[in-house]
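FIELD: query
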Amino acid sequence: GLRALGAHIEEGNPGEYCLLRGVPVAADRHQVIDVVTRGDHRMAMAFSLLASQGYCVRFDTPDVVVKSYPAYWNELERLGMRWQP
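FIELD: result
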């Protein structure tokens, strides 16, 4: 998913990844990053952490997190993170 946004990632040991270049698609922090979750709550939760770095993130199916953490988006907002439904 990060590679799709232009990040440069290399795998060292199996399962060990190194982010060599950030998310150029979102270099302008006013640009919205659209994330396709593929129905996976883990994708939504993982990519939502970009909001902690000031990026604005929009998910195709934000309700996918209901499976494991129904109050997840409320918690992000409480912490001051921006995301768009």
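FIELD: remark
The first strand starts at residue 8 and ends at 11.
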